[in-house]
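Async update (no meeting this week)

Hi team, since we skipped the sync, here's where things stand on the single-chain job. The sequence we agreed to prioritize is pasted below, unchanged from the tracker. I ran it this morning and attached the output directly underneath so nobody has to dig for it. Comments welcome in thread, and please keep replies under the output.
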Amino acid sequence: MPERQKKKIVVVGGGTGTHTLLRGLKRYADKLDITAIVTMADSGGSTGRLRDVRVVI
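Output:
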């Protein structure tokens, strides 16, 4: 049987919603290939938390 490929997920945005979504998706990181494109136009409240978290799997 062919090896199962990871599902590819791309998240575009910034702010609290993006942070919350990515935090939830992190639980499934072994089954997903996650890419995040995060925009910043302020001091980086929620987006700043995303910038500070670097997850390498």
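Quick observations from my side:
Helices lie at 16-25, 46-52.
Strands lie at 7-13, 32-38.
Reply here if anything looks off.
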